[in-house]
Amino acid sequence: MAVYTEVSDEDLDAFLQRYDLGRVLSCKGIAEGIENSNFLLQTETGNYILTLYERRVARRDLPYFLALMAHLAAHGVACPTPVRARNGEALGELSGKPAAIVGFLMGQWPRRSTAEQCSALGEAMARLHEAGRSFAMTRANDLSLAGWRSLIAARHARADELQPGLGAELDGEIAALERAWPRDLPEGVIHADLFPDNVFFLGDKLSGIIDFYFACNDILAYDLAIAMNAWCFEPDGSFNVTKARALFSGYARVRPLAAEETAALPVLARGAALRFAATRLYDWFADTGSALVRRKDPLEYVKKLRFHRGVAGPAAYGLA
Amino acid sequence: MAVYTEVSDEDLDAFLQRYDLGRVLSCKGIAEGIENSNFLLQTETGNYILTLYERRVARRDLPYFLALMAHLAAHGVACPTPVRARNGEALGELSGKPAAIVGFLMGQWPRRSTAEQCSALGEAMARLHEAGRSFAMTRANDLSLAGWRSLIAARHARADELQPGLGAELDGEIAALERAWPRDLPEGVIHADLFPDNVFFLGDKLSGIIDFYFACNDILAYDLAIAMNAWCFEPDGSFNVTKARALFSGYARVRPLAAEETAALPVLARGAALRFAATRLYDWFADTGSALVRRKDPLEYVKKLRFHRGVAGPAAYGLA
Q1: What distance in Å separates the CA atoms of residue B33 and residue A239, rounded to the nearest whole number?
Q2: What is the SS3 assignment for B85?
Q3: Does the interface ipTM go beyond 0.85?
Q4: 0.90 cut: is pTM over it?
Q5: Spatial separation of the C-alpha atoms in residues B7 and B9, rounded to whole Å
């Protein structure tokens, strides 16, 4: 739930003067998204999402994210298209924050995902990876190994409050992943945050992908590992191999995985679990002040990490 | 910001089977409203607001509120119209909570109100009061004098933490209002919560009134007193007599105030200020658990109370 910035009518009207979207009919803060303030904006020309960029999203990265969305949408990936102001710019400023308007995407994110949805997600992710090949800009992943190490270091003294021994366990995991992390797998543009609340469906048909604010250049199969962690564990912590198989086979319909990508999945999945354990651990002990943010449980991802540490190989994910 | 209940796709689909609204295209939690969970629902037939009734709104009162909205909308008051399911019922159950769908109202609530908007509000309020005459159901105001007394009693021991002497001051105020409260003024259906966030405008044109969940039968002029407190004080605490005059003259265009109603305004305004001071004081020291609710400052309304205690008569509000 997130609306950090109150936008006055006057500010909004002035902001929209820069666009050809007609008069504002309605503008409501949306109780979704944690990083930014999002509003469902209705004007005489249609429905849009207005985003004010708050903490964590670096201003210097915004042109990358907006250009990527425009590129992907132009190349057939179902995702929001940034709306350009009359001066050609998609990025503006509203109530003192960087702000952009994107097209409204129909659909709902699945509260309980199905194997069919995992399959559709795999296919859409592969199309995103393919469309990303011709995208000219690049952005390093600042939440890769070095980033995890510093997040965990910043909370090391408090990790054991969550579970005794957790600090040492995460240190060992970082060290193991630094040794084992693959160096020569295919890389490209990845979404890097393909959780269910970022993927919209109309029934089992995928209607679009949103929230590209962690997108970057990294190992393509790492994107699959992130999604597998987010989609293929049930609420009780059990791993649903049917959903994993559906995810991978959906992906392979568009972009077949090389043998070395498949072989690397267990270590990529450990890394993907550690990444979210690290950011959640960091946020758990952050002083949020009066911000109305619901903290996410770091231990959920520690458990996923342990699961992947224990698997014998990619066969555990339903892969041959 | 309020979405207390997560609604699964399956639950929503099952709920909508009872209506003739077509397929769900989108359903987003809205970061507005404190008492209930609100969703902007888009279906094949249009846009709606889906509300799940949470704490404070008593289930037994819901038929009154929904019937009142339907009655007012049918009598030309711009307000949301409840949508009936195929069985004729406007009230259903979703995810274990009472739930209803109402039509979507265009417009935005004013973050900084103008005198023109106060005038339009006065006129709309008088139309609401007039339309309420033919409404057959009644509901007592449970946030009237006796209600204030018990809310303040429940927090008496802690009131002085906010400001030394506050507990005694509020006791004295209750006693004074019990003696001075008018007994013979015209009564009828009042909204009882006409704050700016419950009144939508397109420019200076009032497009509708929402949130009837405090509506009840009480003194009509008390509704004006509540709105005067909510609309006619500036953020720095000063009283804007131009806005007050606009509010009263807008009202009088539809329903002229009797001399005894005008004369009673200072005491009604003290009562209206005490009512919100009392609920805010109660909430200030309530254990909200993990609920993401922004508390409102009780002292804002204590200051308004003191202002009204100090006025010589209705002339202070710009009234002759």
Answers
A1: 38
A2: coil
A3: no
A4: no
A5: 7
